[in-house]
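Researcher: Last one for today. Full complex below.
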Amino acid sequence: MNLTEFLHMGGYGFYVWTSYGISLLVLLVNIIVPARQKTKLLADIARKARRARSTS
Amino acid sequence: MFNNFFHKLASPKHFYRIAGNLIPWLAGACLLLVLAGLYYGLLVAPADYQQGDSYRIMFIHVPAAWMSLFIYVVMAVAGAIGLIWRMKLAEVMLISSAPIGASFTFLALVTGSIWGKPMWGTWWVWDARLTSELILLFLYLGVIALHSAIDDRRIAARAVAILALVGVINVPIIHYSVEWWNTLHQGPTVTKFDKPSIHLSMLIPLLLMAVAFKLYYAFVVLMRARCEVLERERNAGWVRELAEEK
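Model: Here's the assembly. Have a good evening.
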């Protein structure tokens, strides 16, 4: 089987690859969102802790 | 020893650490199984004698649909535990599961629609299976919206627990919808009592992807749960120390 044939998927290439593409996108976004949220949260907590110390 | 382990697990600080240790292993195992599943599903398994290569959408459609139901049941169980024993970790797991469950429900609907177009000749029909799965998506979105609408996290957790418990009635409706009502959607081929009516070469990638999706849920829900714990415990000493180490 060559690559063109593989991508063609017996005429259903558009449907198969759209399904797999959307799934990959959604699954990746679900990993990136909490990873970035954690970094932001920790930075935010550290900043507030420093500010609380400097004012007291 | 086990008692001690669970006691520790219930404390936010230890949960945060143990979850952090588990995530890379679960993610690594998930990646391996996805790659194996894609290899067997896209390259090894033969084309279907009726549906040609379009049936390969099944390898994500079916596991995504299974996960959409599984995660909702997890949410309902976590909701019950949270309501009865006031266990904070159960509340955290419930709300952390909702976006992942919504994502899998969305994927089940979208990949089903894309598969339906060439096979049924339509993107969508208002039949029992598709409609009840769409209601499941709205239940997930309802849980997320309700939680973000209530400022007090404990009250929000109780409210979404009740919603999750009431909505769980939809799960058996979805599962049996293809048997109770006439539909374009095909009946179950794997989860029935006699022999599965699916060839081994197609069953193997399907099961690989199903286990991979379970592992995916496991590590992503832990990632979300860690953020939720940080948010809830942001005034605790260990969280401040952790934040300032970075």
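Chain B has one domain: 56-245. The longest helix of chain B spans residues 12-44.
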